[in-house]
Amino acid sequence: xxxxxxxxxxxxxxxxxxxxxxxxxxxxxxxxxxxxxxxxxxxxxxxxxxxxxxxxxxxxxxxxxxxxxxxxxxxxxxxxxxxxxxxxxxxxxxxxxxxxxxxxxxxxxxxxxxxxxxxxxxxxxxxxxxxxxxxxxxxxxxxxxxxxxxxxxxxxxxxxxxxxxxxxxxxxxxxxxxxxxxxxxxxxxxxxxxxxxxxxxxxxxxxxxxxxxxxxxxxxxxxxxxxxxxxxxxxxxxxxxxxxxxxxxxxxxxxxxxxxxxxxxxxxxxxxxxxxxxxxxxxxxxxxxxxxxxxxxxxxxxxxxxxxxxxxxxxxxxxxxxxxxxxxxxxxxxxxxxxxxxxxxxxxxxxxxxxxxxxxxxxxxxxxxxxxxxxxxxxxxxxxxxxxxxxxxxxxxxxxxxxxxxxxxxxxxxxxxxxxxxxxxxxxxxxx
Length: 432
Description:
- There is one protein chain.
- By secondary structure, the chain is α+β, with helices and mostly antiparallel strands.
- The protein has two domains: 2-73 and 280-429, no CATH class; 82-271, no CATH class.
- It contains 17 helices and ten strands.
- It has a six-stranded mixed β-barrel with strand order 2-3-8-5-7-6.
- Strand 2 and strand 3 (126-135) form a beta hairpin.
- It starts with a helix and ends with a helix.
- The model is unreliable at 1-20 (pLDDT under 50).
């Protein structure tokens, strides 16, 4: 026993013989179990496992949330331009000249014009409101992934004057149409006739179906050739706006400011962060709240160290009294128990980080194996548009979680260590 050895020899010689600081030696020595302190050792092990499980859960959950955010963002931005540029009155008349100007900006990788508007689509007895977008098929691939997500047909099947249309798979399923079927597109604009005004209508032929995995787009979007859209919406040679694709979508706000300064006041430029600001703000808030909730689990596990150390202090009162009679200061006694609590926190944090990183990197395969073993599907493709559990490990999250767990563990040692430092040797040894 450490204190018994110290009582028989000079503490300085003892330190020199052990080649290590006294408080670290005793603090580490107290982590080992004796027969009469098996319960304390069990509580210590439980504290380590509690921190480890909490850290593992926090890393895994945040990694899965990061994976979902990345997957949803990728699918959303595959249909959304990095930026759009339009005129002051909501349309561009001189867009070919503007395209030539935009080619002088090295950050702009692609430019494509489009015309969009709300329409009603009728197929037999089914009617659905839809956002109809007129595009140049050969240019659209430069700014979006529609052409790469075609289930049937090709985007280049949209030919000027033939009035072909490409529907989202959910919209096509609702209308009950496939490639080759005829549908009626009804524009909110009206045409005056002797019998009064009637809405503009045009028969289109379904030439393809796309699926990007986002219900909002698969259910509510349709594409036609830009010339056909211009005739339907009476746009003549004008377009609604230009879609822009940048070298790095994360730099969109800075690039947009540069473009706005160069084209102000004739044109308006906006980027994807403005168009989807509410969505991404909600995602950030959800992640922040989830982090706080799971961090409370780490805090509960860390503060279990308090009960563990208090029991150790109670069990080692006689040892502490002997150490103080040999000249050990109250600060050194406090340090002994802070070392003990820190060791518990470090072991728990390291085990949690190892477990969390391992689980986050393999959670998709693990869930897949569980589904195969139990013959169930957690994320059914018929209900969810992300049927696999995505995960993206961000090391900055891991470092932050590990640092916070260690800090909480360190804070939890202060009160028990302070109580140990207050022990009066005379009172303890009076009945020994």
